[in-house]
Specification:
By secondary structure, the protein is of the alpha/beta class. The protein folds into 2 domains: 1-81 and 169-257, Rossmann fold, CATH 3.40.50.300; 93-166, no CATH class. It contains 9 helices and 11 strands. It has helices at 44-51, 74-79, 97-109, 126-135, 151-164, 181-194, 207-213, 231-234, 238-245; strands at 4-15, 18-24, 27-29, 33-37, 59-64, 67-68, 82-84, 169-173, 199-203, 216-221, 224-229. The chain has a 6-stranded mixed beta sheet with strand order 7-8-9-4-10-11, with helices on both faces. Strands 1, 2, 3, 5 and 6 form a 5-stranded antiparallel beta sheet that branches. It is globular, with a radius of gyration of 19 Å.
Length: 257
């Protein structure tokens, strides 16, 4: 039996009669990379918004480490260790790369709201921040102003700031969106590397990324679960091929949601 870290039961979200997420029951195993894929409009990002309580479900239950978190607020869920990144890069462009990671580390120290204290009190975090930058191949860029970084490295920095908040479960929302091939390859390998000892649930359009690093894949279509399994299983599922490509011939290889 797999150790389940996150589970949903009948998760549903309706917007004035439109069902964006329809009775989704999801089981994310601890230590795995679990990908949520599907055509545009399948409900993937809405599902993420429900899991982190940026939206409240119409019906259904969300369990994290066996605890019902359905009624909790986003900050409570983050404190439990469910940390999310977004489709767009969410970094502070006018701060240095190291300062961005240091902000993520402040939450663990209780210094986040000590605005009256000197910045020098944060220097104790520099060594840990530098170590996180090394982990995502940004060690040499620590003193750079973040706004000057190329897009792919900004996404790597976002992963570092997410790691700084010590996530038990990382939710990555389209981490390679808008990247060229070189950046996609770099970020894909980065996700694989930082997944060691961690659990990742990711929404991703690029099937090459999904096929190379995902242990389990859940396919959504029209808000409902269409198929689930490893890539070999879901890529040959006739219903999945129909949803993606309008055909049941061939395979999903290289297709983009």
């Amino acid at each position: 039996m797999k150790d389940i870290i996150l589970e949903t039961d009948g998760l549903t979200k309706e917007f004035r009669g439109f069902v964006a997420v329809n009775n989704v029951s999801l089981r994310v195993a601890r230590g795995e990379i679990h990908a949520l894929i599907g055509p545009n409009g399948a409900g993937k990002t809405t599902c993420f918004n429900l899991l982190t309580k940026f939206l409240s479900p119409t019906r259904g239950k969300i369990m994290f480490n066996g605890i019902d978190i359905t009624g909790e607020r986003p900050a409570q869920i983050a404190r439990r260790g469910v940390i999310r990144s977004f489709q767009i890069s969410a970094v502070f462009p006018h701060l240095s790369v190291l300062e961005n990671v240091r902000i993520g580390l402040q939450r663990q120290t209780g210094l986040s709201f000590h605005f009256w204290k000197s910045e020098n009190c944060l220097n104790q975090l520099n060594e840990r921040a530098q170590a996180l930058l090394e982990e995502v191949d940004l060690g040499q860029f620590s003193s750079e102003i973040t706004g000057s970084l190329p897009y792919g490295r900004k996404r790597a920095l976002e992963i570092a700031t997410t790691l700084a908040m010590e996530p038990e479960l990382m939710l990555l929302d389209e981490p390679t969106q808008g990247m060229g091939h070189e950046d996609v390859d770099r970020v894909t390998q980065l996700i694989k590397r930082v997944s060691v000892g961690r659990t990742i649930l990711m929404v991703e359009h690029n099937m090459n990324v999904v096929s190379s690093i995902a242990d389990t894949i859940t396919v959504l279509a029209r808000g409902a679960v269409l198929a689930e399994g490893d890539y070999a299983h879901v890529s040959r599922d006739p219903a999945v091929m129909e949803a993606y490509m309008g055909t049941t011939d061939g395979e999903l290889e290289g297709a983009h949601a």
